[in-house]
Amino acid sequence: MPSPSGVNVTDGTDATEISEAWAEVAYGHDTKYDYGPHDAVPRSARWYTEAAADRSYHPASGAGDEWNSWAGHRTWSTVDVTADGDADDPADTAVPAYRALFVEGASQGRGSWTGAGPRANVHLELTRAGGGRPWHLSEVTTAQAAAPSAQSASSAPSTSSWPSTSMMSSAPSPPPSLSSSSSSTTPS
Fold this sequence. Notes:
Strand order of the largest sheet: 1-2-3-4
Oligomer: single chain
Strand content: 25-35%
Shape: elongated
Structural class: alpha+beta
Number of strands: 6
Largest sheet: 4 strands, antiparallel
């Protein structure tokens, strides 16, 4: 399944790297293995605090039209994650850190179909036990970005199926492994 690519998360001491790795996994979908976009969230639980991981994540709705279109084309998503340079987050301290990210994805079908993928503005609160210790997500808030108005002729509807509330998860159950390449996830 999707795993962060191009992100060094070996020691977990860089809050930006943890945030970007989380976003790549949480928004990395593969309709071959996932029943809806919410299935990616438990895979990202490894970066949550224990208290956040213990919270049960339940989607407010079903997968939605966008997901159904992706599933019909047997797609997987590639995700680009960039920092929100306009965010007015407080400066990092030894314990809390805040990150704001833009997530923009593309869906690629098993064939030649392509279309818009997941898009969101994500605000993350991270915490750790003290300086030099690994960072973990304590709060995640998402706002789904509007789908692009100009999509390919075979692309998905513009409605989004992702929730716009905090996303917390229980421990993941790992699906089959997939290979990955720089900033994207492709099926093997």
